[in-house]
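Hello,

Our lab assistant flagged a job as stuck in the queue for most of the afternoon. It eventually completed. Since we weren't sure the result was trustworthy after the delay, we are filing this so someone can double-check. Below is the sequence as submitted and the structure that was eventually returned. Let us know if re-running is recommended.
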Amino acid sequence: MNSNIAKEMNFKLPPIVLIKSNIKPENAVGPKKGKGGCVMSFVAQTIAKRKVTCFGKENITCGGIASAFGWGSGLADEDAIDFQATFLSCGVESAPDKDSYKRRLEKMNRHTSEMFVEGERIFADFETAKTNIKNRPIYDSENYVIFKGLEDLDEGEIPKSVIFTVNPIELTALIQLNSSFRVKDSYILTPQASACQAIGNFVFKEDESEDPKPILSPIDFAGRSKMKHFIPNDYLILSMPWKLFLKLEEISQKSVLQTELFKKFKTQ
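-- returned structure --
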């Protein structure tokens, strides 16, 4: 697809799309069946290297990925939720049952267990983490998520999420486009979510709204750590539903992007 926004802004890292499918592309890069890891390392390869990447239900090895891409909650019971909430808060310090939590860490390799001991600290405490986990948008559809460059979008394909990777000036321009037609508050959202959820299920939720908002991310350093070999540290991601992207495409035809003032920033 030819994008006017991409043409006008001449991104260093052009936008990509997330597509849901039950068919795994033959040419896609991704983990082998039964293997997993953090999906953001594959997303980063699509962003920076323009590779088609794919991640499936059979690759889930993280408590957040299932909900991120619409494969249920990924948490079988209350104990699983408690374990996730402990990790996303302050680790052992936050655990309601410290001995039980420590026993589970003994089964992990040293590098992973060290991270779980101190916790990811996305949330300030266990209860806040647990409430947020239970409030995640949950969907259940298709077996695969596919990431590809927007320019490689095939005719008839409808992405679930359009993902911009931007520096501060590019983000400023996108925020201005997104705000230019609105008259109410809350023009952009920053949910306390993992990087995969911010480009996935939280965007899916916005697609259900009559007034969808873009999602700014990643705000978790674990997700960023998997992207840093491909994406500069000063870049952020702005993700949005397809219908919002199409609206911004239309608005971009006569916008700040055509002004001499913006062009001066483009050449800096």
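-- support follow-up --
The delay was a queue issue, not a problem with the job. The result is valid. Strands lie at 16-21, 53-56, 144-149, 161-166, 215-217, 236-240. The first helix runs from residue 4 to 9.
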